[in-house]
Amino acid sequence: MAxxxxxxxxxxxxxxxxxxxxxxxxxxxxxxxxxxxxxxEFVGTTEFAAVNLIMPIFMIIGxxxxxxxxxxxxxxxxxxxxxxxxxxxxYFTLFVIVTATAGAVMAALGVIFLRPLSAFLGADGAxxxxxxxxxxxxxxxxxxxxxxNLFQSFFxxxxxxxxxxxxTVAAGVTNMVLDALLVAxxxxxxxxxxxATSISQAVGGLVPLFYFSRKNSGLLxxxxxxxxGKALLRATTNGSSELMSNVSASVVTMLYNMQLMKLVxxxxxxxxxxxxxxxxxxxxxxxxxxxxTAPIVGYHYGAKxxxxxxxxxxxxxxxNLVAGAIMTTLAFVLARPxxxxxxxxxxxxxxxxxxxxxxFAFSFIxxxxxxYGSSFFTALNDGLISAIISFMRTLVFQMLLILILPAVWxxxxxxxxxxIAEVLAFVTTLIFxxxxxxxxxxx
Length: 443
Prior knowledge:
- With 443 residues, this protein is mostly helical.
- The chain has one domain (11-440).
- It has helices at residues 11-42, 45-81, 85-120, 125-138, 142-157, 161-185, 190-212, 229-238, 240-263, 266-302, 306-343, 347-361, 364-379, 383-409, 411-435, 437-440.
- Helix 3 packs antiparallel against helix 4 and helix 11 (306-343) crosses helix 13.
- It is globular.
């Protein structure tokens, strides 16, 4: 029997409904890891460092899709909860058009400014050329990447999370097969990895366009629309926390890379890249749960069902804290074998990566609650609080710590920055949850 947004959600139903989103995010992170493995093993350490150095730029651009997806789904889910399906579809269509247009503009700007951006990030010589070679191909696929990020959220609102998972799996398999073919077999090298990424993003962005363009059994489909300025403004402000989270993470990654280049050079960037690749597989589970359950919160908020809101917050807090503890344990135990995959035979790189990952692993205890807290307020259409939590967690705390701690603790200061930032963000999220409990009646 299909699970509807209007249902009462037990732990079992929450897991079942959110599972496709969790798997979807994990699979997305895994095929990103595979990308890194092929570059590291078959192309070289310099090229692997180049991918990690330039990738934050593309994540910033792609974050616009996450913003419209998170902010737009909150509005569409709330509108569905209020019983106006026709208006919900008009909003949905508008958000897709705006995202596609913005993607085309950002791709053009990316091509123009790719070389100066690579230089700004500290790349020179062979590293600079590798950034440009990889980036000029990947940036062309930005419209598809943004649409893929957008549709990941809207498949859930359409009550088709399994279909969203299928599209993500199709894109991921495309990327992995092409990585093997274009990097390991033919091989084209770094350009092959870039082509594999771009083509997979085209799959993830185009297939949903065909699905929503025709009659379907879900809650959403494309329809005639017009410019709803207020709804678009609410979507962008409401989703600003997700934009902030992704942009901030990318900015912070650039700061980490710059600090590591100063402290230990390219090996430091490669070590941090490996930690991020593996770490995001764990974080992806927490993000997937937040994405998968946000439309439920938005629907019941629109339907003014406060009892269900209380139940959702209570259950989700337990889920995130328990999951975070389990992930920390697994990450600590598996730090060395996972780091070996990216070390490319270098003993020093292996030691640096595994040591850093063991410290980084403790951040999972706190990060799930913070990610869910920000997503929860987005679903309540309170973009301001969501943005503040995300802004403090992903930018302010981490930026201050990555600038200060390395001067005190050296390389360990880099690894401890994320952990301490997550602790501070955990406290901040708790404060906002308790401060707004009467306003939204979720406690």
